[in-house]
Amino acid sequence: MNKIKKITLGAFLVLVAGGIIFPTLGHSKYPVDKLTIVVPYPTGGTTDRLARVIAPFLSKQLAVPVTIANREGGGSIVGIKAHLKNDPADGSHIVYQIEPYLSGGILKGAWKIEDFDYLGVDYWSPQSIWVKKESKYNSLEQLLQDIKTYGPKIKHGYLPNSWGLPVVALLKERIGAEAKGIPYQGGGPQRMALLAGDIDFIVSELFGTRASAEADLRPICIFEKARMAIYPEVPTINEVMQKMGLKPMPIVSNFRFYLVKKGFKQKYPDRWDMLVKALEKASADPEYRTILSKQKLEATWKGPADCEKAVAESYQYCEKFKEFFKF
Q1: Using CA atoms, how far apart are residues 78 and 9, in angstroms rounded to an integer?
Q2: Buried b (16+ CB within 10 A) or exposed e, 281-296
Q3: Which pLDDT belongs to residue 47?
Q4: Which CATH superfamily is domain 35-125+253-324 in?
Q5: Of 295, 326, 317, 249, nearest to 123 (Cα)?
Q6: pTM, whole model, 2 decimals?
């Protein structure tokens, strides 16, 4: 009997080392051979890395293998159009997408917002305004006052197709003046320009900027509904707007979320429910969250209704400022 137990244990360890995930006791097996997460961006990018980090945790919940398929090109258009055209609507394929790039595809006529069902958001990084550590601007109020006084002499760096220009345009609606925008191809060059003093501030997503430049930069406001535990001293954008007697700003964010072509939810409601629950549990797994935390990233979970609402609200602002979103 001991010999049999040793052989069985040895075989189990070999299979685990080979990447085979066994059903967890009490978990129902997801009724497909494997789940493919379609990432419509290149290997090695943030979206790809996040998908690969969560894959084993999702596999544990579903008790089937989870693989990543990179279908890059056209700012996600190639991969998502391939999903709509070729992948079965049976829950075997889901897409991991970034907003505002889904809205970019809508603006280009590649698809409609109604072409998808929305499973949930698992990464939410609000927009924020950053200055360098030694900047004279200790508050957003000071910065906005200088923009009102000096206009284009105050400069900001932005990435094409990001929230940078729309945020500055929304602030212009409120204060009647606008800083001059300088484009940069990538967050690295944008942050280096801020450190060099070539620009005065940037609008950037919170967690990515924190992970890469917290030692040199500091946020002076965050686009969230409430102050965040990681920066309790930093006000929300609408705390500042209220203090200055200005119209509230929209809460805009870079967020990553799961979607699937229309039809799956209606045809396979049990699979839909199983997949949503598995994604939520995987995103809440302590080990998964520890991995992200070490990279100064944070996991979140917003379910299907909140995800669909967030996409719809984001699209409204993308449509309003579509001249800034060329994609």
Answers
A1: 45
A2: bbbebeebbeebeeee
A3: 85
A4: Bordetella uptake gene, domain 1 (3.40.190.150)
A5: 295
A6: 0.76
